[in-house]
Amino acid sequence: MDFQFGRKSILILISEIIIRLLHAMTFFLAVNSFSPIFFGYQKVALSLMALFIFISTLGFLQAHNIIMAEKGNQDDAFTIYFLIKVILTIIASIITFIIILNLINDKNFSYFNTEQIWVIIIIFFELFLDSFNQIYTRSFLSKMEIAKMQIPIIISTIIGKFFSIAVIFIFQNFYIYLIGTIITYSIKLIFSIYLGRIFHFSKINRKLLKRYIYLSIIFLLPVILDTLSTNLGPLFFLQYFDEEALGVYFVIFTFFTMIVTLQKTFQILLIPNFINLLTNNDVENLKKSIRLFGKYMTIMNSLIIVTGIIFGEFFLKNFFGIIYYEQGLYFYYGCLLFTMRFALLDPYSSVLIASNQLKLFTFLKTLNFVSALVSWIFFIPIFGIIGIELGNWIFLIPNIIIIRIYSHKKNGIGNIDIKELMHYSVSVILFIICFFITSLNLGLLLSGLILLIIVGLYVMFLFKAKLFTRKDIEYIFDIINPKKMINYIRDETKKETEKEK
After folding, report:
1. Residues 380, 421: one domain?
2. Contact at 8 Å (CB) between 310 and 437?
């Protein structure tokens, strides 16, 4: 097992847990302080800003991940990406402002009210700052400089969230609350620039610039499809329902975003690791990395899902509010079960990107968008907020089948062994049992006791089936060793300073 990779992963885990807890605390306070309609306005603003996100990103972000991970001249790569990102962000800002101003001044387009306009303006500045933050965050990540990536995130999140909490208690103003994110991104950018001294600006490498452009064109269609898949659904939804119902969707979806952000970060971390393994033709360690990732993600998500099912009704009623329980319970369950995709699908998607198998990657993105579009047109009128994501949920199974069959034929990975099949089967059985227990309305304490029994039985199964062994425990304790972790962070953050001296 790769202890250095594991230590980087556990650093992300620890820091992201801190960040997610701060996000959750702030978010729950906001949900209980502001009407769902405000969150509906926020989601509309984010959807309208899809054009800004698309233009400021294009396919260059994915190209940068690959090029930086190849460990060539990283200063040249950073310089080119920095220049491209600045130009694209400026162009995106100008185009977005022109379009939004035309919509606001269009007498035939009367959707915007004062509240919505203010939210759009605030969201724009959030995304503007985030666009510049991506330059450093993605560069640190691709270079596997995890400490440098996480330190600005942790510090800025702590300051930004305490500002937001103070605003909620003192001002009770949704717009000032949103400004907390602007503060977070500003502080994050300042620290990232400081730690980003490891990168040095160089002359433009024209050959490398051409490669950036080439890769960005390859990734362009997937980026377009991702942008549309993320942002069109809510706009379709508003043709049938109001902003309050959209706010219910956005609040629950945001809650799960806070959970899956951690897993998405792990997935992004896989790409540079897989590129290194494929470059060295180390297929065996590639298989081990995928199995390890899949196993740990299955365990993590199984525990999240069984807990989320049993306490789902209590959680929605008491932490969000009765309107979220009445309108969003089944959507909550759907989002909960969908978290299993990170174990079943995402490591193989990372292999596709790392091995430049982009035709299949684009094909699957296209099918996913078509499935989502069908869901928006036909399912939103019938199923409400569930219809926004139902297409993504339905397409998960054929997506897994296609990508794993292809991965098995191409790289000899993706086949499900007996232990893995047993693990998935037991997880599904536990989910069914938990849904049955929920239907009995046993009360909070009894449900909690049953949950402990279920978790205990699950842990016993993991040890009995040797899915979790003494080696796993030793590995985990080694990578979370405080002394070794501190040494790793100190070495990573100081090594470049020593070089400069």
Report:
1. yes
2. yes
Contacts of 426 (CB under 8 A, 6+ apart): 458, 461
So what's the pLDDT on residue 302? 93
Residues 159 and 257 in one domain: no
Q: Do 281 and 172 have their domain in common?
A: no
Tokens encoding 469 = 């062994």
How far apart CA 348 and CA 344 sit, in angstroms, is: 8
- Give 196's DSSP letter: G
Tell me the residue type at 485: M
Q: Is the domain of 218 the same as that of 262?
A: no
Q: Are 332 and 252 in contact (CB under 8 A)?
A: yes
Q: Could you give the CA distance from residue 153 to residue 135 in angstroms, rounded to a whole number?
A: 14
Token pair for residue 382? 């019938």
Q: Which residue, among 266, 480, 187, 29, has the nearest Cα to 274 in the 3D structure?
A: 266
Residue with tokens 């400081």: 194
Six-digit token pair at 406? 């292809």
DSSP symbol at 357 = -
Distance CA 233, CA 107 (A): 25
> Whole-structure pTM over 0.70, yes or no?
yes
- Residues 464 and 476 placed together within one structural domain of the fold: no
Range of the domain at 391: 248-468
Neighbouring C-alpha atoms within 13 Å toward the C-beta of 259: 21
The structural domain count of the chain equals: 2
Q: Among 321-335, 341-355, 387-401, where is mean pLDDT lowest?
A: 341-355
Cα angle value 303/306/309 (rounded, 5°): 140
What confidence score (pLDDT) does residue 497 get? 47
Residue 496 has pLDDT above 70, yes or no: no
Cα torsion angle, 394, 397, 399, 400, sign: positive
List, in order, residues 6 or more apart from 15 with CB less than 8 Å away.
150, 153, 154
CA dihedral 409, 413, 418, 422 (to 10 degrees): -120
Q: Do 97 and 155 fall within a single domain?
A: yes
**Number of other CB atoms surrounding residue 478 within 10 Å:** 14
List Cβ neighbours of 75 (8 Å cut-off, separation of 6 or more).
Answer: 199, 200, 201, 202
Rg value, the chain, Cα:
23
| Count of Cβ atoms closer than 10 Å to residue 490 Cβ | 11
- Assess whether 408 and 500 both reside in one domain: no
Say how far residue 459 (Cα) sits from the centre of its chain: 27
- The answer to whether residues 217 and 60 touch, using CB atoms and an 8 Å cutoff, is no
Span 284-329, pLDDT tens digits: 888 888 888 888 889 989 999 999 999 999 989 988 889 999 999 9
Tell me: do 487 and 401 sit in the same domain: no
Task: Give tens-digit pLDDT for 148-171.
Answer: 888 888 899 899 989 999 989 998
